Amino acid sequence: MAAMSISVENLYVRLGNNDVLKGVNLEIKDGERVAIVGPNGCGKSTLLRAISGILKPTSGHISLHGEPINRIHRRERAKILGLLNQSDAIPMMTTVYDNVAIGRHPYRSFLRDRSQADHIAVTEAIAKCELEDLRDRRVEALSGGERQRVRLATLLAQAPEMLLLDEPLTGLDIEHQLALLHLLKDLNITENRTIAVVLHDLATAIRFFERILVLHEGTVVADGPSGSILNTEVLRSVFGIDASIAYEQKSGHPVLVSKRP
């Protein structure tokens, strides 16, 4: 059996007067590729922020590799787990290269210059996100989609064992959406990186992820293999649509088919 990476037990998170997460239990093992889906406001982003340690739970327990997350030093935690947050800001007046190099912070001692290992990690992250032609450009001169790719490259330069990505396709054109999805799949398969991604597109979740976790009103209502978990009942009760998943005959790719005329 694979070792457990992330364990969430009876997790509650209250924001203001709203109970966003209500008794969530889940495990994500080393090397899994998981899509987290659900309607807007169901707690998907809150779950990632709590797992990453950014958001303190109201109650419950979160562990990384069996160690309570609040006992892991922030620098060491950053080597294990990296979060691409929807609201992360990119510093202005920096080049793409210098911004991506920020991801190497967990590996650098105070006042120490960047090492050769830092340079290699930054260069590889820039290449993986297809930013080589932009490496010397100022971030404020980039488009929204280009900035999103810079944010992802910064996370890859951090080189965490587990990647948590909150709607990473936002702002990307179709070409770069597909490039990112294939990159995440490749990182999972070739480097055994654990991947957990919040997505809205259900067909994309099925196509690129092995496991789908469905949140609804702050609780996990379905969790299982991507090829079977989004059945007609779940689509109706959670997403409010009368539909089913079908597969294109030529490509084999999943598509969402509405049953309404």
Task: Describe what this molecule looks like in 3D.
This protein has a single domain, classed as P-loop containing nucleotide triphosphate hydrolases (Rossmann fold, 3-Layer(aba) Sandwich), CATH 3.40.50.300. The chain has 261 residues and is α/β, with parallel strands linked by helices. The chain has a six-stranded mixed sheet, with helices on both faces. The chain is 32% helix and 28% strand. The radius of gyration is 19 Å and the shape is globular. Strand 4 and strand 5 form a beta hairpin. The model has no long low-confidence stretch (mean pLDDT 91).
CATH fold-level label: Rossmann fold
Strand order of the largest sheet: 6-7-8-3-9-10
Contiguous helical run count: 8
Structure classification: alpha/beta
Helix % is: 25-40%
Reported CATH architecture: 3-Layer(aba) Sandwich
What is the topology?
Layout (H helix, E strand, L loop, with lengths): L3 E12 L2 E12 L3 E5 L6 H9 L6 E6 L2 E2 L5 H7 E4 L11 H6 L14 H13 L15 H15 L3 E5 L7 H18 L2 E5 L3 H7 L2 E6 L2 E7 L6 H8 L3 E5 L6 E5 L3
Parallel strand pairs: 3-8, 3-9, 6-7, 7-8
Antiparallel strand pairs: 1-2, 1-4, 4-5, 9-10, 11-12
Helix pairs in contact: 4-5
Summarize the structure.
By secondary structure, the protein is of the alpha/beta class. It has helices at residues 44-52, 74-80, 96-101, 116-128, 144-158, 174-191, 202-208, 232-239; strands at residues 4-15, 18-29, 33-37, 59-64, 67-68, 81-84, 162-166, 194-198, 211-216, 219-225, 243-247, 254-258.
Keywords:
single chain; 32% helix; 261 residues; Rossmann fold; 12 strands; alpha/beta; globular; 6-stranded mixed sheet; 4-stranded antiparallel sheet
